[in-house]
Write a structure and sequence with these properties.
Elements: E1 3-6, E2 10-13, E3 18-19, H1 20-26, E4 46-51, E5 56-58, H2 59-67, E6 74-75, E7 80-81, E8 85-89, E9 116-118
Parallel strand pairs: 1-8
Antiparallel strand pairs: 1-2, 3-7, 4-6, 4-8, 5-9
Length: 119
């Protein structure tokens, strides 16, 4: 099982292939935002990598990050936990002014079909 380290929260074993956004909420208990339900549209699920950043990303994530001109963050809804990683959760419900974190993302990566590209 991959190990997920969340800065200021702790270390957690995560099921292989679980979406990072779900690992943050389920295993780490982080109040991670995911307003669009994990579909790579809103960028509220942003994280910063401390170590273990994946070398690839979904085409949807790349397109969304480029459109929003975000270069120092990744979308946790578009990352699979398939190796050890350490992240900083920078987009949380607390202090956001939102009523809730958003629609719960599905276990399966969205949007379909998933296309992997170089970072």
């Amino acid at each position: 099982m991959p190990k997920l380290t969340v800065e200021g929260v702790g270390e957690f074993e995560v099921p292989e292939g679980k979406r990072l956004v779900l690992a943050l909420t389920d295993e780490a208990g982080v109040d991670q935002l995911h307003a669009c339900g994990g579909n790579s549209r809103c960028t509220t699920c942003r994280v910063e990598f401390i170590s273990g950043e994946p070398d690839r990303m979904t085409a949807a994530e790349k397109q969304t990050l480029q459109a929003r001109e975000l270069t120092d963050a990744r979308l946790s809804c578009q990352i699979l936990c398939d190796h050890d990683m350490s992240v900083r959760a920078i987009s949380r419900l607390e202090g956001s002014g939102r009523a809730d974190a958003g629609h719960v993302p599905t276990e399966e990566m969205q949007p379909q079909p998933v296309e992997w590209v170089e970072k």
